[in-house]
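Hi there. Long-time user, first ticket. I'm pasting a complex I've been working with (about 466 residues overall). I'd like to know whether the download I got is complete or cut off, because the file seemed smaller than I expected. Thanks.
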Amino acid sequence: MPDIFSSLPELSPVGFGLRAVAVGIILWFASRKLPRRAGGQFAAFDFTFFWMMGGLIASPLFDSKINFVNPITAAVTVYVWHHFIAYLAVKSRPLAGMIYGTAIPLVRGGKIIRQNMKKELFNLELLLTQLRLQKVTSLAEVEEATLETNGEVSVIKKAHLSPVTPQDLNIPVVSGGEATVVIDDGKVLVDNLVKLNHSEKWLQEQLYRYGIIKVNDVYYAVIDSTGNLSYSVK
Amino acid sequence: MVWKGIFAGAKDLPFWAFAVRAVLLYTALIIATRFMRKRQIGILSGHNYLVAAGIVSLAAVRMVNPEASLTSGLVIIFVYAGMNILWSYLDIKWPNAIDRDAITLVKNGQVIKQNLYRSMVTIDNLLGQLRVRGAANLSEVAQATLEPTGKISVLKKPATMPVNRSQMNLPAKFTAQPVILVYDGKIDYANLSRLGYTEDWLQEQLRNKGFTGIKDVFLALLEPSGQLSVSV
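Hi, the file is complete. Here it is re-exported in full:
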Protein backbone atom coordinates (compact mmCIF):
# COMPACT_ATOMS: atom_id res chain seq x y z
CA MET A 1 0.00 0.00 0.00
CA PRO A 2 1.41 3.39 -0.99
CA ASP A 3 2.03 6.04 1.65
CA ILE A 4 -0.99 8.29 0.98
CA PHE A 5 0.47 11.15 3.00
CA SER A 6 3.42 11.79 0.69
CA SER A 7 3.63 13.18 -2.84
CA LEU A 8 2.55 10.52 -5.36
CA PRO A 9 2.45 10.60 -9.16
CA GLU A 10 -0.93 8.84 -9.06
CA LEU A 11 -3.51 7.82 -6.48
CA SER A 12 -6.61 5.62 -6.78
CA PRO A 13 -10.10 6.84 -5.82
CA VAL A 14 -9.84 4.66 -2.69
CA GLY A 15 -6.54 6.35 -1.80
CA PHE A 16 -8.17 9.76 -2.21
CA GLY A 17 -11.08 8.59 -0.04
CA LEU A 18 -8.61 7.72 2.74
CA ARG A 19 -6.89 11.06 2.23
CA ALA A 20 -10.26 12.80 2.63
CA VAL A 21 -10.75 11.06 6.00
CA ALA A 22 -7.28 12.18 7.13
CA VAL A 23 -7.96 15.74 5.95
CA GLY A 24 -11.28 15.57 7.82
CA ILE A 25 -9.44 14.86 11.07
CA ILE A 26 -7.05 17.78 10.46
CA LEU A 27 -10.18 19.82 9.75
CA TRP A 28 -11.49 19.23 13.27
CA PHE A 29 -8.17 20.18 14.84
CA ALA A 30 -7.93 23.34 12.70
CA SER A 31 -11.53 24.35 13.41
CA ARG A 32 -10.82 24.27 17.16
CA LYS A 33 -7.83 26.59 16.78
CA LEU A 34 -9.33 29.04 14.31
CA PRO A 35 -9.33 32.67 15.31
CA ARG A 36 -12.99 33.45 16.01
CA ARG A 37 -12.91 36.85 14.39
CA ALA A 38 -12.07 35.39 10.97
CA GLY A 39 -15.60 33.99 10.70
CA GLY A 40 -17.05 37.44 11.34
CA GLN A 41 -14.97 38.89 8.50
CA PHE A 42 -14.63 42.29 10.15
CA ALA A 43 -11.78 43.31 7.83
CA ALA A 44 -10.21 42.25 4.53
CA PHE A 45 -7.58 40.30 6.38
CA ASP A 46 -10.20 38.03 8.02
CA PHE A 47 -11.80 37.45 4.64
CA THR A 48 -8.49 36.36 3.11
CA PHE A 49 -7.69 34.08 6.04
CA PHE A 50 -11.13 32.48 5.99
CA TRP A 51 -10.97 31.38 2.35
CA MET A 52 -7.26 30.64 2.19
CA MET A 53 -7.37 28.38 5.27
CA GLY A 54 -10.20 26.25 3.87
CA GLY A 55 -8.32 25.80 0.59
CA LEU A 56 -5.04 24.98 2.31
CA ILE A 57 -6.56 22.37 4.61
CA ALA A 58 -8.28 20.66 1.65
CA SER A 59 -5.31 20.95 -0.72
CA PRO A 60 -3.99 17.34 -0.36
CA LEU A 61 -7.26 16.44 -2.13
CA PHE A 62 -6.53 18.72 -5.12
CA ASP A 63 -3.79 16.56 -6.60
CA SER A 64 -1.94 13.39 -5.60
CA LYS A 65 1.36 15.28 -6.00
CA ILE A 66 0.47 17.53 -3.05
CA ASN A 67 1.64 15.84 0.15
CA PHE A 68 0.43 16.53 3.69
CA VAL A 69 3.51 18.24 5.08
CA ASN A 70 3.60 21.22 2.71
CA PRO A 71 -0.03 22.35 3.15
CA ILE A 72 0.19 21.91 6.93
CA THR A 73 3.38 23.99 6.99
CA ALA A 74 1.67 26.67 4.90
CA ALA A 75 -1.48 26.59 7.05
CA VAL A 76 0.48 26.89 10.30
CA THR A 77 2.51 29.76 8.84
CA VAL A 78 -0.59 31.63 7.67
CA TYR A 79 -2.17 31.03 11.08
CA VAL A 80 0.86 32.38 12.97
CA TRP A 81 1.11 35.35 10.60
CA HIS A 82 -2.62 36.11 11.00
CA HIS A 83 -2.23 35.85 14.76
CA PHE A 84 0.78 38.15 14.75
CA ILE A 85 -0.93 40.82 12.64
CA ALA A 86 -4.11 40.59 14.75
CA TYR A 87 -2.00 40.94 17.89
CA LEU A 88 -0.31 44.10 16.57
CA ALA A 89 -3.69 45.53 15.57
CA VAL A 90 -5.32 44.87 18.92
CA LYS A 91 -2.34 46.43 20.76
CA SER A 92 -2.01 49.57 18.66
CA ARG A 93 -4.93 51.56 17.29
CA PRO A 94 -2.95 53.46 14.63
CA LEU A 95 -1.55 50.17 13.32
CA ALA A 96 -5.07 48.70 13.27
CA GLY A 97 -6.15 51.64 11.12
CA MET A 98 -3.34 50.89 8.67
CA ILE A 99 -3.92 47.12 8.53
CA TYR A 100 -7.72 46.93 8.66
CA GLY A 101 -8.60 50.33 7.27
CA THR A 102 -10.85 52.73 9.14
CA ALA A 103 -14.58 53.36 9.11
CA ILE A 104 -15.33 56.00 6.45
CA PRO A 105 -18.14 58.51 6.93
CA LEU A 106 -20.43 58.48 3.88
CA VAL A 107 -23.23 60.69 5.20
CA ARG A 108 -22.89 63.30 7.94
CA GLY A 109 -25.68 65.64 9.03
CA GLY A 110 -27.88 64.24 6.26
CA LYS A 111 -25.41 65.22 3.52
CA ILE A 112 -23.51 62.71 1.37
CA ILE A 113 -19.76 63.23 1.46
CA ARG A 114 -18.93 62.94 -2.20
CA GLN A 115 -15.15 62.74 -1.99
CA ASN A 116 -15.36 59.80 0.47
CA MET A 117 -17.77 57.98 -1.83
CA LYS A 118 -15.27 58.44 -4.64
CA LYS A 119 -12.31 57.39 -2.52
CA GLU A 120 -14.05 54.14 -1.53
CA LEU A 121 -15.23 53.48 -5.11
CA PHE A 122 -18.80 53.59 -3.79
CA ASN A 123 -21.56 54.74 -6.11
CA LEU A 124 -24.94 56.10 -5.17
CA GLU A 125 -26.72 52.86 -6.12
CA LEU A 126 -24.56 50.87 -3.68
CA LEU A 127 -25.30 53.33 -0.89
CA LEU A 128 -29.04 53.20 -1.57
CA THR A 129 -28.94 49.38 -1.65
CA GLN A 130 -27.24 49.33 1.74
CA LEU A 131 -29.79 51.81 3.13
CA ARG A 132 -32.69 49.68 1.88
CA LEU A 133 -31.13 46.61 3.51
CA GLN A 134 -31.16 48.59 6.77
CA LYS A 135 -34.90 49.32 6.24
CA VAL A 136 -34.26 52.97 5.39
CA THR A 137 -36.50 54.11 2.52
CA SER A 138 -35.04 57.50 1.72
CA LEU A 139 -31.85 59.49 2.21
CA ALA A 140 -33.96 62.09 3.97
CA GLU A 141 -34.20 59.75 6.99
CA VAL A 142 -30.43 59.46 7.40
CA GLU A 143 -28.45 61.56 9.85
CA GLU A 144 -25.21 59.57 9.57
CA ALA A 145 -24.09 56.65 7.43
CA THR A 146 -20.68 55.04 7.85
CA LEU A 147 -18.88 52.52 5.68
CA GLU A 148 -17.45 50.01 8.16
CA THR A 149 -14.22 48.05 7.66
CA ASN A 150 -16.11 44.91 6.63
CA GLY A 151 -17.93 46.70 3.80
CA GLU A 152 -21.27 47.03 5.58
CA VAL A 153 -22.91 50.44 5.97
CA SER A 154 -24.19 51.42 9.40
CA VAL A 155 -26.98 53.97 9.62
CA ILE A 156 -28.08 56.37 12.32
CA LYS A 157 -31.54 57.73 11.56
CA LYS A 158 -32.53 61.32 12.23
CA ALA A 159 -33.60 61.66 15.86
CA HIS A 160 -37.23 62.50 15.14
CA LEU A 161 -37.56 59.34 13.00
CA SER A 162 -36.11 56.82 15.45
CA PRO A 163 -38.58 54.48 17.18
CA VAL A 164 -40.09 55.51 20.50
CA THR A 165 -38.47 53.70 23.44
CA PRO A 166 -39.80 53.01 26.95
CA GLN A 167 -37.21 55.55 28.13
CA ASP A 168 -38.90 58.30 26.09
CA LEU A 169 -42.29 57.46 27.60
CA ASN A 170 -41.01 56.86 31.15
CA ILE A 171 -42.42 53.35 31.10
CA PRO A 172 -40.75 51.00 33.58
CA VAL A 173 -39.28 47.99 31.82
CA VAL A 174 -40.59 44.69 33.07
CA SER A 175 -38.97 42.13 30.81
CA GLY A 176 -36.03 41.46 28.57
CA GLY A 177 -32.31 41.35 29.12
CA GLU A 178 -30.08 38.36 29.28
CA ALA A 179 -31.43 34.94 30.20
CA THR A 180 -29.61 32.09 31.97
CA VAL A 181 -29.93 28.49 30.81
CA VAL A 182 -30.85 26.16 33.69
CA ILE A 183 -31.82 22.94 31.88
CA ASP A 184 -30.10 21.71 28.74
CA ASP A 185 -31.50 18.55 27.15
CA GLY A 186 -32.91 17.23 30.43
CA LYS A 187 -29.79 18.00 32.46
CA VAL A 188 -29.92 20.64 35.21
CA LEU A 189 -27.05 23.14 35.05
CA VAL A 190 -26.53 23.46 38.80
CA ASP A 191 -23.74 26.07 38.50
CA ASN A 192 -26.06 28.46 36.66
CA LEU A 193 -28.84 27.87 39.21
CA VAL A 194 -26.48 28.61 42.09
CA LYS A 195 -25.42 31.86 40.37
CA LEU A 196 -29.06 32.98 40.55
CA ASN A 197 -29.31 31.86 44.19
CA HIS A 198 -31.70 29.03 43.40
CA SER A 199 -31.48 25.36 44.31
CA GLU A 200 -32.31 22.31 42.25
CA LYS A 201 -35.25 21.71 44.57
CA TRP A 202 -36.64 25.17 43.81
CA LEU A 203 -36.44 24.43 40.08
CA GLN A 204 -38.26 21.13 40.57
CA GLU A 205 -41.01 22.89 42.53
CA GLN A 206 -41.38 25.53 39.82
CA LEU A 207 -41.63 22.89 37.12
CA TYR A 208 -44.09 20.92 39.24
CA ARG A 209 -46.36 23.98 39.26
CA TYR A 210 -46.44 23.81 35.46
CA GLY A 211 -47.31 20.11 35.72
CA ILE A 212 -43.86 18.73 34.96
CA ILE A 213 -42.85 15.88 37.24
CA LYS A 214 -39.57 14.79 35.75
CA VAL A 215 -36.80 17.28 34.96
CA ASN A 216 -35.61 14.84 32.33
CA ASP A 217 -38.71 15.63 30.24
CA VAL A 218 -37.59 19.25 29.78
CA TYR A 219 -35.52 19.97 26.68
CA TYR A 220 -34.55 23.51 27.61
CA ALA A 221 -35.33 25.93 30.42
CA VAL A 222 -34.17 29.51 31.01
CA ILE A 223 -34.60 32.15 33.67
CA ASP A 224 -34.75 35.69 32.28
CA SER A 225 -33.43 38.85 33.93
CA THR A 226 -36.70 39.42 35.80
CA GLY A 227 -36.61 35.91 37.29
CA ASN A 228 -39.25 34.35 35.05
CA LEU A 229 -38.80 30.70 34.20
CA SER A 230 -39.68 29.55 30.71
CA TYR A 231 -39.21 26.09 29.28
CA SER A 232 -39.71 23.80 26.35
CA VAL A 233 -40.53 20.10 26.77
CA LYS A 234 -38.90 17.28 24.84
CA MET B 1 -11.88 6.32 -24.94
CA VAL B 2 -12.76 9.93 -24.17
CA TRP B 3 -15.35 8.85 -21.60
CA LYS B 4 -12.79 6.72 -19.83
CA GLY B 5 -10.50 9.77 -19.79
CA ILE B 6 -13.23 11.95 -18.33
CA PHE B 7 -13.59 9.64 -15.35
CA ALA B 8 -10.04 8.33 -14.89
CA GLY B 9 -8.12 11.40 -16.06
CA ALA B 10 -6.07 11.71 -19.26
CA LYS B 11 -3.20 13.74 -20.74
CA ASP B 12 -5.60 15.62 -22.95
CA LEU B 13 -9.38 15.95 -23.07
CA PRO B 14 -11.70 17.63 -25.62
CA PHE B 15 -13.38 20.83 -24.44
CA TRP B 16 -16.82 19.23 -24.02
CA ALA B 17 -15.33 16.79 -21.51
CA PHE B 18 -14.96 19.71 -19.11
CA ALA B 19 -18.65 20.54 -19.55
CA VAL B 20 -19.49 16.94 -18.52
CA ARG B 21 -17.14 17.20 -15.53
CA ALA B 22 -18.61 20.57 -14.53
CA VAL B 23 -22.17 19.20 -14.56
CA LEU B 24 -21.23 16.10 -12.54
CA LEU B 25 -19.07 17.86 -9.93
CA TYR B 26 -21.52 20.74 -9.51
CA THR B 27 -24.42 18.31 -9.07
CA ALA B 28 -22.35 16.28 -6.60
CA LEU B 29 -21.68 19.46 -4.59
CA ILE B 30 -25.39 20.30 -4.47
CA ILE B 31 -26.22 16.79 -3.24
CA ALA B 32 -23.37 16.82 -0.70
CA THR B 33 -24.46 20.22 0.63
CA ARG B 34 -28.01 18.90 1.12
CA PHE B 35 -26.53 16.04 3.18
CA MET B 36 -24.55 18.52 5.27
CA ARG B 37 -27.86 20.24 6.19
CA LYS B 38 -28.71 23.90 6.73
CA ARG B 39 -25.94 24.50 9.27
CA GLN B 40 -23.46 24.16 6.41
CA ILE B 41 -25.23 26.80 4.31
CA GLY B 42 -25.36 29.10 7.33
CA ILE B 43 -21.66 28.39 8.04
CA LEU B 44 -22.42 28.06 11.73
CA SER B 45 -19.20 26.61 13.13
CA GLY B 46 -15.47 26.33 12.46
CA HIS B 47 -15.55 23.01 10.59
CA ASN B 48 -18.48 24.26 8.47
CA TYR B 49 -16.48 27.23 7.30
CA LEU B 50 -13.31 25.33 6.49
CA VAL B 51 -15.31 22.79 4.49
CA ALA B 52 -17.23 25.55 2.69
CA ALA B 53 -13.98 27.15 1.52
CA GLY B 54 -12.21 23.83 0.86
CA ILE B 55 -14.77 21.66 -0.92
CA VAL B 56 -15.57 24.31 -3.51
CA SER B 57 -11.95 25.00 -4.42
CA LEU B 58 -11.02 21.32 -4.57
CA ALA B 59 -13.95 20.62 -6.90
CA ALA B 60 -12.94 23.56 -9.12
CA VAL B 61 -9.26 22.57 -9.24
CA ARG B 62 -10.05 18.95 -10.09
CA MET B 63 -12.65 20.00 -12.64
CA VAL B 64 -10.18 21.82 -14.89
CA ASN B 65 -7.13 19.58 -14.46
CA PRO B 66 -7.46 16.94 -17.24
CA GLU B 67 -5.12 14.55 -15.46
CA ALA B 68 -7.16 14.53 -12.25
CA SER B 69 -9.59 11.64 -12.01
CA LEU B 70 -13.26 12.61 -11.86
CA THR B 71 -14.10 9.41 -9.96
CA SER B 72 -11.64 10.42 -7.24
CA GLY B 73 -13.15 13.90 -7.21
CA LEU B 74 -16.63 12.52 -6.59
CA VAL B 75 -15.33 10.14 -3.89
CA ILE B 76 -13.48 13.03 -2.20
CA ILE B 77 -16.55 15.31 -2.19
CA PHE B 78 -18.72 12.71 -0.47
CA VAL B 79 -16.08 11.50 2.00
CA TYR B 80 -15.12 15.08 2.92
CA ALA B 81 -18.81 15.99 3.31
CA GLY B 82 -19.19 12.81 5.41
CA MET B 83 -16.40 13.93 7.76
CA ASN B 84 -18.12 17.31 8.08
CA ILE B 85 -21.42 15.59 8.93
CA LEU B 86 -19.57 13.48 11.51
CA TRP B 87 -18.25 16.62 13.27
CA SER B 88 -21.71 18.23 13.15
CA TYR B 89 -23.23 15.06 14.64
CA LEU B 90 -20.61 14.92 17.40
CA ASP B 91 -21.29 18.62 18.02
CA ILE B 92 -24.81 17.66 19.16
CA LYS B 93 -23.38 15.02 21.52
CA TRP B 94 -20.46 17.04 22.91
CA PRO B 95 -20.91 20.72 22.04
CA ASN B 96 -17.81 21.84 23.93
CA ALA B 97 -15.50 19.33 22.26
CA ILE B 98 -16.29 20.29 18.68
CA ASP B 99 -17.19 23.96 18.47
CA ARG B 100 -15.82 26.97 20.32
CA ASP B 101 -17.80 28.81 23.01
CA ALA B 102 -19.21 32.34 22.84
CA ILE B 103 -17.18 35.20 24.35
CA THR B 104 -18.85 38.18 26.01
CA LEU B 105 -17.33 41.44 24.74
CA VAL B 106 -19.64 44.00 26.35
CA LYS B 107 -21.73 43.62 29.50
CA ASN B 108 -24.04 46.37 30.77
CA GLY B 109 -22.34 49.01 28.65
CA GLN B 110 -18.87 48.04 29.89
CA VAL B 111 -16.34 46.72 27.40
CA ILE B 112 -14.55 43.67 28.81
CA LYS B 113 -10.93 44.41 27.95
CA GLN B 114 -9.36 40.99 28.47
CA ASN B 115 -12.01 39.26 26.34
CA LEU B 116 -11.47 41.80 23.56
CA TYR B 117 -7.72 41.08 23.67
CA ARG B 118 -8.23 37.32 23.92
CA SER B 119 -10.41 37.25 20.82
CA MET B 120 -8.26 39.89 19.07
CA VAL B 121 -11.19 42.10 18.18
CA THR B 122 -10.08 45.72 17.96
CA ILE B 123 -12.13 48.45 19.57
CA ASP B 124 -12.93 49.91 16.13
CA ASN B 125 -14.16 46.51 14.89
CA LEU B 126 -16.41 46.25 17.95
CA LEU B 127 -17.81 49.79 17.71
CA GLY B 128 -18.38 49.31 13.98
CA GLN B 129 -20.31 46.09 14.57
CA LEU B 130 -22.39 47.77 17.30
CA ARG B 131 -23.24 50.58 14.85
CA VAL B 132 -24.21 48.07 12.16
CA ARG B 133 -26.50 46.32 14.65
CA GLY B 134 -28.22 49.57 15.59
CA ALA B 135 -26.57 50.15 18.97
CA ALA B 136 -24.31 53.12 18.29
CA ASN B 137 -24.02 54.00 21.98
CA LEU B 138 -22.38 51.67 24.48
CA SER B 139 -24.82 52.78 27.18
CA GLU B 140 -27.64 51.11 25.17
CA VAL B 141 -25.91 47.74 25.11
CA ALA B 142 -26.95 45.09 27.63
CA GLN B 143 -24.62 42.46 26.14
CA ALA B 144 -22.49 42.02 23.04
CA THR B 145 -21.19 38.54 22.32
CA LEU B 146 -18.62 37.21 19.87
CA GLU B 147 -20.43 34.08 18.74
CA PRO B 148 -18.64 30.88 17.64
CA THR B 149 -19.60 31.78 14.06
CA GLY B 150 -17.45 34.91 14.40
CA LYS B 151 -20.42 37.28 14.20
CA ILE B 152 -21.04 39.74 17.00
CA SER B 153 -24.56 39.65 18.45
CA VAL B 154 -25.91 42.67 20.27
CA LEU B 155 -28.66 42.71 22.92
CA LYS B 156 -29.87 46.21 23.69
CA LYS B 157 -31.13 47.25 27.08
CA PRO B 158 -34.94 46.87 27.10
CA ALA B 159 -35.41 50.57 27.95
CA THR B 160 -33.70 51.57 24.69
CA MET B 161 -35.65 49.18 22.45
CA PRO B 162 -38.79 50.23 20.56
CA VAL B 163 -41.90 50.22 22.75
CA ASN B 164 -43.86 46.98 22.53
CA ARG B 165 -47.56 46.32 22.91
CA SER B 166 -47.47 45.10 26.50
CA GLN B 167 -45.63 48.25 27.62
CA MET B 168 -48.45 50.34 26.15
CA ASN B 169 -51.03 48.01 27.80
CA LEU B 170 -52.44 47.11 24.40
CA PRO B 171 -54.34 43.82 24.16
CA ALA B 172 -52.51 40.78 22.83
CA LYS B 173 -52.80 39.98 19.13
CA PHE B 174 -52.66 36.65 17.37
CA THR B 175 -49.35 36.22 15.55
CA ALA B 176 -48.32 33.50 13.14
CA GLN B 177 -46.95 33.06 9.65
CA PRO B 178 -49.32 33.90 6.83
CA VAL B 179 -50.66 30.79 5.08
CA ILE B 180 -50.77 30.25 1.32
CA LEU B 181 -54.34 29.57 0.16
CA VAL B 182 -53.95 30.08 -3.60
CA TYR B 183 -50.80 29.82 -5.68
CA ASP B 184 -50.70 30.17 -9.47
CA GLY B 185 -54.47 29.83 -9.81
CA LYS B 186 -54.67 26.64 -7.75
CA ILE B 187 -56.23 26.29 -4.29
CA ASP B 188 -54.10 24.71 -1.55
CA TYR B 189 -56.86 22.48 -0.15
CA ALA B 190 -54.66 21.08 2.64
CA ASN B 191 -54.01 24.56 4.07
CA LEU B 192 -57.62 25.60 3.58
CA SER B 193 -59.09 22.64 5.48
CA ARG B 194 -56.38 22.84 8.16
CA LEU B 195 -57.65 26.33 8.98
CA GLY B 196 -61.26 25.11 8.93
CA TYR B 197 -62.35 27.06 5.86
CA THR B 198 -64.14 25.85 2.76
CA GLU B 199 -63.67 26.59 -0.90
CA ASP B 200 -66.96 28.52 -0.91
CA TRP B 201 -65.66 30.78 1.83
CA LEU B 202 -62.50 31.49 -0.16
CA GLN B 203 -64.48 32.18 -3.35
CA GLU B 204 -66.66 34.62 -1.46
CA GLN B 205 -63.67 36.39 0.07
CA LEU B 206 -62.10 36.75 -3.36
CA ARG B 207 -65.41 37.98 -4.86
CA ASN B 208 -65.64 40.61 -2.11
CA LYS B 209 -62.23 41.82 -3.21
CA GLY B 210 -63.39 41.92 -6.81
CA PHE B 211 -61.73 38.77 -8.14
CA THR B 212 -64.16 36.62 -10.11
CA GLY B 213 -62.14 33.50 -10.80
CA ILE B 214 -59.46 31.70 -8.80
CA LYS B 215 -57.59 31.21 -12.07
CA ASP B 216 -56.78 34.95 -12.16
CA VAL B 217 -55.15 34.87 -8.73
CA PHE B 218 -51.37 34.34 -8.61
CA LEU B 219 -51.08 34.33 -4.84
CA ALA B 220 -53.54 34.61 -1.95
CA LEU B 221 -52.21 34.63 1.59
CA LEU B 222 -54.29 34.55 4.74
CA GLU B 223 -52.60 36.78 7.31
CA PRO B 224 -52.97 36.22 11.07
CA SER B 225 -55.11 39.37 11.34
CA GLY B 226 -57.68 37.61 9.16
CA GLN B 227 -56.89 39.77 6.15
CA LEU B 228 -56.55 38.08 2.78
CA SER B 229 -53.75 39.58 0.70
CA VAL B 230 -54.02 38.87 -3.00
CA SER B 231 -51.57 39.29 -5.89
CA VAL B 232 -52.69 38.78 -9.48
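A couple of notes from our side: Chain A touches chain B through 74 residues (CB under 8 Å). Chain A has three domains: 13-94, 104-161, 180-233.
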